[in-house]
């Protein structure tokens, strides 16, 4: 189990390299949701996504421990950028395996950080084989997108900041007094690295807060795994949320089943509507995967009515030439 001390150490380690992103609110969206929403804006993070946190925490330790002379990973985009960015900070070459269908803007960013991009077919098997080939050729150290305690601990720091910056509020009767900054905290789920980190931080800092995940209907594997207790594959893959197409790992599933209250799904139409709402009302750029938690709140208003809710806005790396609206 990743301890709170591990998360604190991760935060101390990456703090010089990251932004402490703002927490924003919007009255119009609150009225639509029937709740008070606090958005942790990781779309303003280095590389445009929360993934910078986990990538840095892992790569900084690889470099400090002299575990290898190069870094590799596989990713559809944001983790790829995070590892490339982190590797540049420590002066190590990075070899990033990316599906040929990954957004051009994300491939260009990886190249811009000085990493080598190796394209593969858009399947998990092809991505993993690509990484094995890189390791055999270069001896690089794998920094997995989510099946890695160091990555999870880094991602956990986003919720730590959210809870710290939202203000710790006392409530309840004297014998039951506790700290609960939020009634619920929501994050999207793909491979489960962010959700695992979010759930662990919340468990340590605010155990009375309910953690809920959002998942696209077109990549609904996590909800099946959550209920069955074993790794499941989605019945079909067809979603605009390209960052959430990966299945969970045994590591992330175990954390999620212990500390997450529920996983709720939303359609692509609902994701796009939530994404457009943020663009129009908050005047900030978010990518489709980022809009999933808000889509969940808007779809399931009865579950969140009147609550104080924290949402992780995961990233803003969207191809401006292919907007869905």
UniProtKB/TrEMBL annotation:
Tryptophan synthase beta chain-like PALP domain residues: 14-315
| InterPro entries for this protein | TrpB-like_PALP (IPR001926), TrpB-like_PALP_sf (IPR036052)
**Any one GO molecular function term:** magnesium ion binding
Q: Which UniProt keyword terms apply here? A: Lyase, Pyridoxal phosphate
Set out the biological process GO terms recorded for this chain's protein. Answer: D-serine biosynthetic process
Q: Which CDD domains match?
A: Thr-dehyd (cd01562)
Which cofactors does this protein require?
A: pyridoxal 5'-phosphate
PANTHER family found in the cross-reference section:
SERINE / THREONINE RACEMASE FAMILY MEMBER, SERINE RACEMASE
* Sequence similarity: Belongs to the serine/threonine dehydratase family.
Specify the protein name.
Pyridoxal-phosphate dependent enzyme
């Amino acid at each position: 189990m990743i301890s709170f001390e591990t998360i604190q150490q991760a935060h101390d380690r990456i703090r010089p390299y990251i932004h402490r992103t703002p927490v924003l609110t919007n009255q119009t969206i609150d009225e639509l949701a029937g709740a008070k929403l606090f958005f942790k804006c990781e779309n303003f993070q280095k590389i445009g996504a929360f993934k910078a946190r986990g990538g840095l925490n892992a790569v900084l330790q690889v470099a400090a421990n002299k575990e290898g002379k190069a870094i590799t990973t596989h990713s559809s985009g944001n983790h790829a950028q995070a590892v490339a960015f982190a590797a540049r900070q420590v002066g190590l070459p990075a070899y990033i395996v990316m599906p040929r269908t990954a957004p051009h803007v994300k491939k260009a960013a990886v190249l811009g950080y000085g990493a080598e991009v190796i394209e593969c077919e858009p399947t998990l098997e092809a991505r993993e084989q690509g990484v094995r080939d890189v390791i055999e050729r270069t001896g690089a150290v794998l920094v997995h997108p989510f099946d890695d305690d160091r990555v999870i601990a880094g991602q956990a720091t986003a919720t730590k900041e959210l809870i710290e910056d939202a203000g710790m509020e006392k409530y309840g009767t004297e014998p039951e007094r506790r700290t609960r900054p939020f009634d619920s905290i929501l994050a999207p789920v793909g491979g489960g690295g962010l959700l695992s980190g979010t759930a662990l931080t919340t468990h340590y800092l605010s155990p009375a807060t309910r953690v809920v995940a959002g998942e696209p209907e077109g990549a609904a594997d996590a909800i099946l795994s959550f209920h069955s207790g074993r790794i499941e594959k989605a019945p079909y893959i067809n979603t605009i949320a390209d960052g959430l197409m990966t299945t969970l790992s045994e590591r992330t599933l175990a954390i999620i089943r212990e500390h997450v209250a529920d996983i709720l799904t939303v359609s692509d139409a609902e994701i796009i509507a939530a994404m457009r709402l943020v663009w129009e009302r908050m005047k900030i750029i978010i990518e489709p995967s980022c809009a999933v938690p808000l889509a969940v709140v808007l779809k399931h208003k009865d579950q969140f009515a009147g609550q104080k809710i924290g949402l992780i806005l995961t990233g803003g790396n969207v191809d401006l030439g292919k907007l869905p609206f």
